[in-house]
Amino acid sequence: MSSGKVRTRFAPSPTGFMHVGNLRTAIYEYLVAKSQGGDFILRLEDTDRERLVEGAEAVIYKTLQTVGLSYDEGPDIGGPYGPYIQSQRLDMYLPYAKQLVEEGKAYYCFCTKERLEQLKESSGEGGGYDRHCRELPREEVERLLNAGTPYVIRQKMPLEGSTTFHDAVFGDITVENSELDDQILIKTDGYPTYNFANVIDDHTMHITHVVRGSEYLSSAPKYNLLYEAFGWEIPTYIHLPLIMGKNEDGSISKLSKRHGATSFEGLVQEGYLPEAVVNYIALLGWCPKDNREMFSLKELEENFSIDGISKSPSIFDYSKLEWFNGEYIRSKTLEEFTALAMPYYKEVMGDKELDWTILSSILQPRVTRLTQIPEMIRFFQELPEYDAGLFVNKKSKTTLENSGPVLQMVIDGLEGLSQWNREGIHDFLIGLAQEKELKNGTVMWPARIAASGMAVTPGGAVEILAILGRAEALRRLKLGLGKLQRR
Ligand code: GLU
User: Is 311 exposed, middle or buried (0-12, 13-18, 19+ CB in 10 A)?
Assistant: First the structure.
């Protein structure tokens, strides 16, 4: 578009959760602007009052803030082209529609609902409006207006020829004008239609690039004809590919709940980190030149370009997202990980205090979603019921016979340990193995089984004993010994 600054807008309708498709649109709008030193604007499209959902606006603000998509203009921060909430702009639209009427490019339509319904019935779906009021004599229009007859304002679509629009991703698309209805611009209640308000807002807010889902592709010719009617410059259109999910039988269909969480908050609830979600979603339809995968938002700004957007449908792959999430989890410092994990620790441990740092050090390399934590640590809260058979392990050379005496020595030694910490426990257990000429595993295995009651645990005997603390660790070791002796 014009020589001026790039300006993009995210224009969500507050109708519910932040779907991953919407979030991707927001990310791309942001990246299109920021990769070119432009401005990113937030506009709330709330004119479809029936679809509004309470609390949805708050979700939009919160999500953008959480993922770091800060906007340069918006409802809560203002800007030179406000208001940024469509319902506060209502009186701006009618004059533009009237301008088109004056110029002979739009007209008042007084057709009643009944007539329109009859029309639909007789012509079938897709028959469209028959343009009955398109050429009403001026005096007749005046008379009806003066009599207060309800009306809508419709645009006069060209009756012949075709309209071509260009999309940066999908290329040139042409439709026959005869297929286009004389679209309503202003409804009977004086409200603009969604399509009309969207164009007026984009123009008056000086938007240069419009990024939206490909479900809007079929509306683009109508938008173009509006821009042309006003003689306004058409923004660059960037329609994004559909987001699909993989079905159990291997086929794909539009991403929906049966594939998994489809909203940003749903994903966060399932233990994904916002930065992993942003990184993954940014690659859903955009491919960097060098096939690199890990990007912070800042790095995306530096690397993004519109020509990397693909038009083929992208598949939302939850296992790939989980891989990203694991990478992000591991890239945290121990303190950061502990802070992220703490709500999950508390969920299981309640008020009980453990050595969170050691706990985090064994979990961080293993966790790929934060929600896995409670299951992984439940044995710290309560020793599960377990069978003495767990003490038997071929590789560690442990048997039901030798495990008891080993546990006895472990208990005796640990009871006298002066400092209950990782190093102390480690040195004692390794020293014991050496002294008795046993494999390390022959000592570690029974100690870990008794401490955890589980065959597979995050971390080994040393860490688990250290985390449990002296009293609980010794209690469990003795319970294990009892199990072996009772046989
Ligand atoms: N308000 C529309 C939506 O939430 C946005 C369409 C557009 O970006 O033009 O889907």
Answer: middle
Q: Residue 47 has what pLDDT? A: 83
Query: How many A from CA of 221 to the centre of ligand 1?
Result: 16
Q: Is the CB of 13 under 6 A from ligand 1?
A: yes
**Tokens at residue 289, please?**
């030149």
257 is catalytic: yes
Select from 186, 198, 190 the least CA-distant residue to 227: 198
| pLDDT tens-digit series, residues 80-118 | 999 999 999 999 999 999 999 999 999 999 999 999 999
Q: Is 108 helix (H, G, I), strand (E, B) or coil?
A: strand
By C-alpha distance, which of 199, 347, 212, 380 is closest to 271? 347
Long-range contacts from 246-249, C-beta under 8 angstroms, 24+ separation: 246/315, 246/317
Q: What is the layout of strands, in order, in the sheet containing 152-155?
A: 106-109, 152-155, 184-186
Ligand 1 atom with the shortest distance to the CA of 194: 1
pLDDT at 103: 97
Specify the length of the chain in residues: 487
Token pair for residue 411? Answer: 């208990």
∠ Cα 14 246 244 (to 5°): 40
What value, to the nearest 5°, has the Cα angle with vertex 332 and ends 328 and 333? 170
**For 193-227, b where at least 16 C-beta lie within 10 A, e where not — what string?**
bebbbbbbbbbebbbbbbbbbbeebeebbbbbbbb
Q: What is the mean pLDDT of residues 3-16?
A: 92
The CB density around residue 74, as the number of other CB atoms within 10 Å, is: 22
Give the strand pairing for 184-186 and 209-213. Answer: unpaired
Residue 125 in this model has a pLDDT that exceeds 70 = no
Reported as a pLDDT band with limits 50, 70 and 90, residue 1 is: very low
Residue in 156, 168, 287 with CA at minimum distance from that of residue 217: 168
Of 5, 62, 254, 257, which is the active-site residue? 257
Percent of the chain topping pLDDT 70: 99
Cα separation, 229 vs 238, in Å, equals 22
214 in ligand 1 pocket by Cβ < 6 Å? no
pLDDT tens for each residue of 192-236: 999 999 999 999 999 999 999 999 998 999 999 999 999 999 999
Residue type, 188: T
